[in-house]
Amino acid sequence: MSLSDKTSRPGTTPSKSRNARSRSLLEALVDSSEDAIVSKDLNGIITSWNPAAERVFGYTATEMIGNSILTIIPPELHEEEATIIRRLHEGERIEHYETVRVRKDGRLIDVSLTISPLKDREGRIIGASKIARDISNHKQMQRLLIQSEKFAATGRMAANIAHEINNPLESVFNLIYLARLSKALPPEVAEYLRIAEEELGRVSHIAKRTLGYYRDNTAALPSDMCSLLDDVLYLYQMRIEGHDIRIERDYAATLPLLTINRGEIMQVFSNLIVNSVHAMPNGGTLRVTIRQALRDGMDGVEVNIKDTGYGISPENLPRIFEPFFTTRTRAGTGIGLWVVRQLMDARSGSVEVRSSTLPDDHGTCFSVFIPYVFTPAATTAQV
Fold first, then answer.
1. Among positive and negative, which fits the CA dihedral 105, 107, 112, 116?
2. Given this chain, do its domains 33-134 and 218-383 carry the same CATH topology?
3. How far apart are CA 374 and CA 156, in angstroms?
4. Which of 12, 137, 178, 307 has its CA 20 to 30 A from that of 299?
C-alpha cells in the first residue's frame, strides 16, 4: 500500500484525495499569481476573479463575478470581445495578445492576454480562462526608447539641413546688403529689406545652433511683449489675410518689460500663429491676449493665442508636443510644437493647450507663460 493510500481520509478513494490536493494546489497557484487570472462563460459573464485581478483592475471579486467582462474593456474595443468569443468557439487559444483595458479608476493600462477555452467533461467549450499581465511599464519603456530614437534622428536631420542651408544663406545676406546700398531705393522697400535681413539672421542663428557651432550665448534683453507679438503678426499678415482671418488683439494697458531672447520668443509665437492659420483654411478669428500672470510663485506674462479652427481631437491632444507628430496630411514636419515646448521648458516658462472639436464650439487656445526674469535652466535644451 502506498503512502498516499495510507494517508487517505476515511470514506475517500486515493484518486479523489489526489484530485482534491490538485485542486487545492491549483487554487493556491491562482491566488498567488502575479498575473490577473479570470474565467468567464461564453456570454462574457465573469465566473472567477483572482487577487491579482483585483490589484491590476481595481475591482474586487464581489464586484466583478456575475458581471460582464466588458466592464474592463474600453467602449471602442467592445468589438474585440466578440472576435475573441468567436475564436474560442472554434477551440482556438490566443497567446500574448496585446491590447488595452480600463481600471475601475478610469485609467487605461496596457495588457498582454493569454486566453484559453474551458471545456466540460464532454469536451464542449463552455467558457474561457484569461491571464492578463500588466505591461504598462514595459510599454512606457518602449515609448521612451522610441522617443529617444526620434530625438537622435531629429539631431541628425537638423545637422544635415543646417549644413546645407548655411552657404545659400550667406549669399542671400550679401544680396540684401547690396540691395540696401542702392540710393534709389524707396523707403518702404528699404524697410522690407531690413525686416528680411533680421529674419534671415534669425534663421542663420537657428541653423548654427542646431549644427552645434556654438551654444546660445545671446544676451537676454528687456523687451516689450506687445510690440513683439505685433511684429510676428506683421510677418504673417499676407498669409493671415489670404485665409480671410480676422485678428483680435486684447493687450493689457501697461506691462513691465520682459528679459528675454527676442529671437527665440519670436520663434515660439511664429510656430503657434502658423498652426492657427493652418487650422482655419476657410477663415475665422485669431485672438491674441496678453496679461500679467502668476505661475508657481513667479510673476510673468501670459499670452493666449486662440483660433476658431477645427480643433484638435481628444485622442491627439496629449501627443501634439511629441517630435514628428502631426495631423497635417500635406504639410507639416511635426517639429514646430516640440520646439516650442523645448524652448519654454529650458527658460522656466510653460506652454499649455486646450481645444474643442464640437460643431458649435470649436477651436484651439495655446497659453504661453513667460516669467519676467527669463533665465536659462540648468540644462538648456538644444533644438
1. positive
2. no
3. 29
4. 307
Q: What is the mean pLDDT of the chain?
A: 81
How far is the C-alpha of 240 from the C-alpha of 288, rounded, in Å?
13
Task: Compute how many other C-beta atoms are within 10 angstroms of the C-beta atom of residue 12.
Answer: 12
Residue pair 306/353 in contact by the 8 Å Cβ criterion: no
pLDDT of 33 > 80? The answer is: yes
Which CATH architecture fits 218-383? 2-Layer Sandwich (3.30)
Q: Which amino acid is at 168?
A: P
**Coil, strand, or helix at residue 352?**
strand
Cα 224 to chain centroid, rounded:
32
pLDDT greater than 80 at residue 21: no
Q: Beta strand pairing status for 284-295 and 298-307?
A: antiparallel
Q: Which pairs with CB-CB distance under 8 Å and at least 24 residues apart come from 240-246?
A: 240/277, 240/286, 243/277, 243/280, 243/281, 243/282, 243/283, 244/282, 244/283, 245/277, 245/280, 245/283, 245/284, 245/285, 245/286, 246/283, 246/284, 246/285, 246/286
Q: How far is CA 278 from CA 62, 262, 307, 338, in A?
A: 52, 24, 10, 17
Q: Are 292 and 252 in contact (CB under 8 A)?
A: yes
How many alpha carbons fall within 13 Å on the CB side of residue 69? 27
Beta-strand pair 298-307/350-358: unpaired
Q: How long, in residues, is the chain?
A: 383
296 touches 313 (CB < 8 A): no
Which residues is 46 bridged to in the sheet? 40
Q: What is the pLDDT of residues 229-267, one digit of tens each?
A: 998 888 788 889 888 999 999 999 888 888 888 878 888
Pairing of strands 36-41, 46-49: antiparallel
Total-model pTM: 0.49
Domain-by-domain residue ranges, the chain?
33-134, 138-214, 218-383
In angstroms, what is the C-alpha Rg of the chain? 31
Look up the CATH number of domain 33-134: 3.30.450.20
Element containing residue 222 per DSSP (H, E)? strand 221-223
Note the CATH number of domain 138-214. Answer: 1.10.287
pLDDT tens by residue, 53-95: 999 999 999 999 999 999 999 999 999 888 888 888 888 888 8
311, 330 contact by CB (below 8 A):
no
